[in-house]
Amino acid sequence: MCASQTASGNMTSSEHQVPKLRKQDDRDKRMRIILLRHGKPVIAGRKGLSAYEFAEWLDEYDQAGLCSRSLPEQETMAVAAKCNSKWCSNLQRSICSIKTVCPEADFVASKLFRELELPHGPWHWPKLNSTAWSVIFRLLGFCGFAYQAESWRQAKSRARIAAQRLSAEAETNQSVLLVGHFFMNRLIARSLVRDGWSGPASPKGHHWAVNVYEKFLL
C-alpha cells in the first residue's frame, strides 16, 4: 500500500537536508533535473534463503509499497512540486513514492528508470539471508555475472538513454523530477555531469535523498 501521509518535518540531520534552489532570476535561465530516491519499502528481510529462493524474494521486493513511517520532508515535497514534468520507474516503491511526494500530480512511470536488475542463481545451497545475497549478487553483477538479469554494460547503456530522456524533458519543460533508485540514479547522474550538467557526480543515496542538476538554457 502506498503511503499517503505528509511529512512531519522533524528530521534535522544534515544527511536529510534538501539542497537549496537558486534565486528566481537564475532559475528562469536554467534547466533543472531533480533526482529523488524513493522512500523505504515495506518488506522484511528473510533468512535461510537459497539463491533460487532469493529470486522469489526479489519479486516480492519489487512489488512492495512504502513503509508508512517513511515520509518525505515538507521541503522535499515543495522542491518536487515545482517541477513541470514528473517521472518515476514502474516499480511499486517508486510509484508509491511519487504519489506521496506529489499528491494528485500527473506523472509518467517508465521501466527505463528501473533499478539495476540483480542477477541470481539456480542453486539450492548455501542458505543465506536476503541482505547477504543482495550484496553477493550485486558484486557479481559488477563483475559481469548476469544470470536472468541485464548485464552491467546493458545497465550503463540504459542509464545513458535515461539521462538523455531527462535532458530532453528539461529542454521542453525546464524542470524535471525523477523518483528513482539508488544505483540507477547514480549512473544517470554520472551521464548528466559528463554532458555538462552541474550537480553531484556521486549523489546522495538515502531514502528521499534530493539531488539537483542544472544547466543553462541555450
Descriptive notes:
- With 218 residues, the chain is of the alpha/beta class.
- The chain is built from seven helices and five strands.
- It has helices spanning 24-27, 51-63, 74-81, 92-101, 130-142, 152-173, 182-194, and strands spanning 30-37, 85-89, 108-110, 175-180, 210-216.
- It has a five-stranded mixed β-sheet, with helices on both faces.
- Helix 4 links the parallel strand 2 and strand 3.
- Helix 6 (152-173) packs across helix 7 (182-194).
- The relative contact order is 0.23.
- The model is unreliable at 3-17 (pLDDT under 50).
* Unreliable segments of 5+ consecutive residues: 3-17
Determine the structural class based on helices, strands and strand pairing: alpha/beta
What is the number of helices? Answer: 7
Order of helices and strands: HEHHEHEHHEHE
Describe the sheet with the most strands. 5 strands, mixed
Radius of gyration using CA atoms only:
18 Å
Number of strands: 5
